[in-house]
Amino acid sequence: YVESAPIFQECIIHMVANYPYWPWPTSEMEGPLTAVLYLVEKKLRSFETLKKSVNKALFSNEIRYAEVFSRALTKDDFDTWFVVQYWRDWFTRSLAEANGASESGQKCVLGKVYRDLRGEAYLPTILVLDAVEACRSTDLHTRAKRQGVERDLKTLKDFAQKAVEPLCVNYSMLSVEDAGIDYLTCIKVEDHELPWVKSDGNFMQSGCLSSNAGQLTN
How many CB atoms sit inside 10 A of residue 122's CB? Predict the structure, then answer.
């Protein structure tokens, strides 16, 4: 009822990004107006579609399509194949842990998974090298082998950095780093989507939603 676009847009970002986790003890999920709930559902659908699109790109990220994945695997291809599978396993487990936390009513931490992909700190080369060596009967730590694993891992990380950019955009007024926000804040609410704006883009008269005032608790 303050009809402040920045405040309202900020609220929608955090509601959608945290769903189904509800960390606001002073209000209930059923409290907002029908128009607000409709917008939340609309943004949630778009948010889920974007996540699925990004995840599909990440899971289909492969190295050397024609050279490796179109023929039977040989010992010369093993390192590349293993790096791809190891990366996918890390991403799958990270997503499962983040989604599991949210679904069990814990703090939503999904944003951290995708923001990690924007950097280089996750999955250090030495960790992947040790994992590859553990699956081999010969010593892996030769210069040529190490360079190959480093090159393949960098190729995967470079692709992932670009793929997650749409999810890592921050439309919140807060700095996710400074505020310690572990969820995604890429939900954008346009001015014409504000519930007190008419379909022609003009603002409705204040008080037009007063009949529902008792429903809104936050």
Answer: 16
* Helices within 62-142 (DSSP H only): 78-103, 110-117, 125-134
Q: CA-CA distances (angstroms) from residue 112 to 40, 81, 86, 91, 120?
A: 22, 26, 19, 12, 14
Q: Are 146 and 129 in contact (CB under 8 A)?
A: yes
Of 154 and 22, the structure prediction assigns the larger pLDDT to 154
Residues for the chain: how many in total? 218
To 5 degrees, how large is the angle CA 178–CA 184–CA 187? Answer: 115
Instruction: Please count the helices (runs of H) and the strands (runs of E) in the chain.
Output: 8, 0
Report pLDDT digits (tens) over 33-59: 688 888 999 999 999 999 999 999 998
Contact 36, 189 (CB under 8 A): no
Distance (Å, whole) CA 39 – CA 33: 10
User: Rounded to an integer, what distance in angstroms lies between the CA atom of residue 213 and that of residue 91?
Assistant: 44
Cα distance between residue 96 and residue 100, in whole Å: 6
Return the axis-axis angle of helices 78-103 and 34-59, rounded to nearest 10°. Answer: 160
- Give the separation between CA 82 and CA 149, rounded to whole angstroms: 9
For the stretch 162-217, pLDDT in tens is 999 999 999 999 999 999 999 999 999 999 999 888 655 554 443 333 333 333 33
The count of other CB atoms within 10 Å of the CB of residue 207 is 11
